Amino acid sequence: MTVSSAPGKVYLFGEHAVVYGEPAVPCAIEVRARVGVERRDDSKLRVHADDLSLDGFTVEYGGDAGERPDIDVSESLLVAATQYVDSAIEQVRDVTGEEDVGFDVTIESDIPLGAGLGSSAAVVVAAIDAGTRALGTTLEPAELAERAYRTEYDVQDGQASRADTFCSATGGAVRVEGDDCRSLDAPDLPIVIGFDGGAGETGELVAGVRNLREEYEFAADTVETVGDVVRNGEEALAAGDVEELGRLMNFNHGLLSALGVSSRSLDTMVWAARDAGAYGAKLTGAGGGGCIVALDPTDETETALSFTPGCEDAFRAELAEEGVRRIE
Ligand code: PMV
Fold first, then answer.
1. Cα dihedral 154, 160, 162, 166 in deg (nearest 10)
2. Which atom of ligand 1 lies closest to the CA of 19?
3. What domains lie within the chain, and their CATH numbers?
4. Which residues does the record give as ATP binding sites (predicted)?
5. Closest residue CA from atom 12 of ligand 1
6. Is 194 annotated as a binding residue?
7. 117 labelled ligand-binding
8. Residue 116 annotated as binding?
9. How many whole angstroms separate alpha carbon 16 and alpha carbon 281?
10. Distance between CA atoms of 182 and 173, rounded to whole angstroms?
11. Count of C-beta atoms within a 10 Å radius of residue 135
């Protein structure tokens, strides 16, 4: 078996605005998805997923394009386990020229699905890395990130930014502006995450912001203002000024809220973190539900979140210096 792991991410700044060409700063976190592959002697894929939900499941498919496996799990799980893996393995076939290769694939992930922590990107990055290595090819992080981006682009019908996949492949903090992705120097960040147990509908949330932008000039200005916050955030990151980062994250959350992508549970967690003394807190990712990210070097925010109604899980996450990791 060849096994790779890849980290999830939080957005320190800039989600949604990045769709309209503003910069964004995501940051990889030590919460990982692991993907193991074993070459088969036919061209099928067999996917076994543990920990993506409480119940693991196995699905075997292959052959006809568009075949939907007959299996009783939620659509998001099925997509995570089949479409993303399917498309990732297509990239493996493309890179290696082994067009008919099949694999047994095992996925284990500690990253909640669809909650703004980049779960699908981590699975895709780890799957492409493990699949190519199993066939004797080791990809550089930039090529891996590009292949993983194409995978997400295909599965999400073109609605993908490079942020999650680049961040997951390379690790660390990253600056994304359009097609330009680069690594940033970052201090050790005291990241705390609160998860409401839910997930937002990324497509609907992105469409909501697009509509607001088209309808109101001040909404378009709000998106541009997010870009200004991001540029200030980059300076604070470079200076290692964690308190300033927190203040700017608070501002970014306010703007995201104005754009209609927060939710009651996200706002409740953000305020619980602020009341507990966090330097700052904001939603991460598409919003609508899912996760918030706060900065607090003490235990106060994690403790407060764990007692906050609507917060299902609160945990500390180190910045992941290392992106994709080759395990065996
Ligand atoms: O929820 P996530 O982690 O998939 O982030 C979505 C980020 C958006 O900016 C809303 C969309 C995008 O593709 O950049």
1. -70
2. 14
3. 2-184 (3.30.230.10), 191-317 (3.30.70.890)
4. 112-122
5. 161
6. no
7. yes
8. yes
9. 17
10. 9
11. 17
Distance CA 283, CA 19 (A): 17
pLDDT tens-place values along the chain, 328 residues long: 999 999 999 999 999 999 999 999 999 999 999 999 999 999 999 988 875 544 455 666 664 445 556 555 566 667 767 889 999 999 999 999 999 999 999 999 899 888 889 999 999 999 999 999 999 999 999 999 999 999 999 988 887 889 999 999 999 999 999 999 999 999 999 999 999 999 888 889 999 999 999 999 999 999 999 999 999 999 999 999 999 999 999 999 999 999 999 999 999 999 999 999 999 999 999 999 999 999 999 999 999 999 999 999 999 999 999 999 999 8
Write out the catalytic residue numbers.
164
Rounded distance from Cα 202 to ligand 1 centre (Å): 7
Ligand 1 centroid–CA 102 distance in Å is: 31
Q: Is the pTM of this model over 0.85?
A: yes
Pocket of ligand 1 (CB under 6 A): 15-16, 18-19, 116, 118, 160-161, 163-164, 202, 206, 285-286
What's the rounded Cα separation, in Å, for the pair 105 and 127? 8
Grouping H, G, I as helix, E, B as strand and the rest as coil, residue 270 is helix
Q: Which residue has the tokens 């694999």?
A: 103
User: What is the whole-number distance in angstroms between the Cα of residue 295 and the centre of ligand 1?
Assistant: 21
